[in-house]
């Protein structure tokens, strides 16, 4: 049976065909990186950022670390998904719930359209890193909801629709710095304020690229086979962490159940802009655009905590790849 993305067509998705000399399931954009570290005045780096289709083009929320290394979020707009006009002024969130979630700087945003608005989930520094939520209708005015969890937690990723009547959020409980461990969990909420029913989705895999910690990446993509989830995995080598990314397939109705999970990574730091930068050897995906009509996917990923790259794949090929060589135990 044909593997399909269940969603809307996106004929203007940024996409480049696989180069003739490449047999990889995922391949990089030939003009990477698409966003340079100095594209916005006063910036030190622009990476780990999220984009969505918006009006006739695209909009996004970008992580900029400034030259004092303060981490802030900035709106950006693009007509083709490749050339971005990113606002120099940081987003100011209108805080709707007082002490429950103040904006004190943010990083690693994800953006998703649900029902009538664009939700932003990011890592907030309020009393320690945790998962913050907010929304916008127009990428001009932004509102902040309560933090989903107390510190420490990161890599919050909302599903693009309610599951069994509830909002659903992948997350990664952690500690106060570069957690040397971490598994992906699932939480649900009736109203985006109260979160519970925590379930474990996936553990790390010893002796692999996903050995120390894993974290959900872009918004899961609904397919005929299950939710296609791209996620990053970290291994500690003798001179530091290496961040690669791969994919898993989660059950459509019970997404805490893993159907298949790639043993091999899809992309790992190999190009100079992924290996050299403020933090060496990091590829960190935070967004994916997909075209349901053709199965084409474009993944946006941070490179070496410095610049932003783009990589491409096809949903059916990724699903075949992770089914063919799956981690033997899924939990
Ligand atoms: C993680 C996050 C990411 C970063 C990565 C590598 O813990 O902070 O923002 O890309 O570390 O430094």
Overview features:
2 helices, five-stranded antiparallel β-sheet, five-stranded mixed β-sheet, mainly beta, 331 residues
Can you describe what's shown?
It contains two helices and 22 strands. The protein is mainly beta. The strands form five sheets. A five-stranded mixed β-sheet has the order 6-10-9-8-7, with no helix packed on it. Strands 15, 16, 17, 18 and 19 form a five-stranded antiparallel β-sheet that branches. Strands 1-22-21-20 form a four-stranded antiparallel β-sheet. The chain is globular. The two termini are 27 Å apart. The mean pLDDT is 96. Bound molecules: beta-D-mannopyranose.
What's the order of the H and E elements?
A: EEEEEEEEEEEEEEEEEEEHEEEH
What is the spatial order of strands in the main beta sheet? 6-10-9-8-7
CATH 4th-level superfamily: Glycosyl hydrolase domain, family 43
Total number of helical segments? 2
The second-level CATH architecture is: 5 Propeller
Number-wise, the strands total 22
* β-sheet strand percentage: over 45%
Mean pLDDT value? 96
Helix share bin:
under 10%
Ligand inventory reads: beta-D-mannopyranose
Low-confidence stretches: none
The rough form would be described as: globular
CATH topology description = Tachylectin-2, Chain A
Count of distinct structural domains: 1
Termini, distance in Å?
Answer: 27 Å
CATH class: Mainly Beta
Query: What profile does the largest beta sheet have?
Result: 5 strands, mixed
